[in-house]
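Notes, Module 5: Reading structure tokens.

Key idea: the token line is not a picture. It is a compressed description, and you learn to read it the same way you learned to read a sequence, by spotting repeated patterns. We will look at two proteins. The first is printed below with its tokens.
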Amino acid sequence: MPRRKSIEDYTAFELQQLLQQRRLVEREERLQAFQRSGRILQTVKPAQWSTESANSAEETDEVSPLRERVISRRRKGLDTFLLIVEVIAIVGLIVLFINGANLLQNLNRESASLLALPSLTPTPLITAVVLPGGHLAPVAGQENSFNEAEIPEHLRPLMQSYANLPIPTQSPQQARQVQIPAIGVNAPIVMGDGWEQLKKGVGQHLGSANPGEAGNLVLSAHNDIFSEIFRDLDQLKEGDEIIIITQDRSFTYVVTGTLIVEPDRVDLLAPTSNSTITLISCYPYRVDTQRIVIQGVLQ
């Protein structure tokens, strides 16, 4: 007789198989007991179970490809949807990046334009709203006076403030005397061209250049009152000399042109880049509604 194996001689798999067979036998015995007692009518044998399980497996095998196709279709649809979403997201990011770059470029351009300093041009020192020397035409028996009517009403307070500017002390470099041989002028020059200064002679406009300096030396005098110093300015021709004398030396300017202008041509008082001279007086004689302007350059 072959020797019976002990439990230690069986492998784990063999023990599992034995345990499963033992459970099947016990279950069969319980089912038979239930049949004998009438508690159940019919049982399915393990062989039938195996057959049914096989049939079920076959049916499952038949259904599985269909289910896999359905699942595959769903996955493909989902993948397609996700791909479309990703493409839209990428396009949106590209558009957003381009718009952001354009916006940043525009902001930089606007900032640069705001921070860029404008090209500065020197502001001329013009302390007048009309050309100097304006006065009412002389009338016998009446006192001479300044012509306030030629000044726009809204500028009269400004003109008054200019009239109240202090007159600086004359320096050695400033003009002291003017000589114009062609019309016989030989007169002193004082600082300032207000009403009181022009009573004393030819007035140098405050802020205008000194003789010989780069800039515009502006001189004015009356033509029909207070010695009529500039009465004959309209007789000057191009090439005539204007001699300006300072404390130390003299400078000769040459006439380049004559202008007849309205009293508000204050741009003629503006500084120039080279050495120039501007002579101003009222015009016409004993009418005084305009100005005669003689321009010249340093010889």
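Here is the second protein, with the sequence above and the tokens below, as before.
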Amino acid sequence: MQHAPLITDQARFRDLMAHLAGETSLALDTEASSFHRFHERIGLIQLSNRKDTWLIDPLAVTDVGELGTLLGSESGETVIHDADYDLRLLKHMYGFRVRHIFDTLIAAELINEPELGLASLMLKYFDIKLDKRFQKADWCKRPLTQDMLDYAAMDTRHLIALRDEMTARLKAKGRWDWALEEFDLLTELPFQAKEDELPGFLRIKGAKALRPKELAILKELHAWRDQVAVKLDRAAFMVLGNDVLLSLAKAPVNNLAELAAMKGVGASAISKYGEAILAALHRGLATPKDQWPRLERPKRHPRDPQLEDRMKRLKAMRDKLAIDHELRPGIVAANHLLMDIALAKPATIGELLAIPPMRRYQAEVFGPELLGAI
């Protein structure tokens, strides 16, 4: 197998952008450092046309602005598998807006492939077995080995051919317009205003079950850990695991010996951070009661038997439609969309379309039966 060239200087990058300027389809993937590092960033960019593959080192090529121009072209299409993460990362790091997307994962969902992973699809369609050894590698560490580069190149090398296979199947099933609608929505997502996110300590799984006093301890421990992780540029869980933070919040220790006896706290953590962990713990314990974090509990609405009945009928109809059309139930209508429909009680396709998560193809193809179920 021929190795994909690694682009590490500005002049070669500029030449590549000029070479690819007229392409109608380009396959794209990124390798990021999110598993290992606190500061999430792209460590490698893979590009393929129908014949060749190139790897771009964004740590060496410091100005990749021309790639944004290429991906934002009105005439070109960018093929990605599971595009959402890559699109958000490209927007976050470079401000790039990818104009026209073909997401092979979404296409696979719409033709009801039983396995949606890229490795499974490559094996099924081309009898190609992808090497997944480096999925959790640190792509911002240098040098990158040749095995890592070969692994990365395979993620885009056959992606346009997969796109062609998927396109044929989408059109044969009459679902090409469905795919186009989903792809158009994808390009907008990274640029939509986010709802206010929860503070980091509340996003830890299990945090919302803690009492306010325990949350005060967790908040201080989380803040300390983030400071260390930022300084080291290391993923926070590598400093101290979430399970340890939760255990300390629920059952605070009194000294280093008790801390060292805890599961998940090794000798290295004690020698490096032991005193700092205890200090954060004591700050949490000393938090005045009026400053304890308090979670707003969702408002409880009185039971509405009619709403429950509508929801039950809608779910039954959705599940029947999914079987009839050989689709995953979520493609017909996810549960949260069904609840919105049950609450809104639309009487027409137009009113159904006015419900924000509703896709046009969902309203047109499945709308009459869903309205009937209301």
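Summary for the second protein:
- Residues 332 and 365 are 9 Å apart (CA to CA).
- Residues 305-373 form a domain with the DNA polymerase; domain 1 fold (CATH 1.10.150.80).
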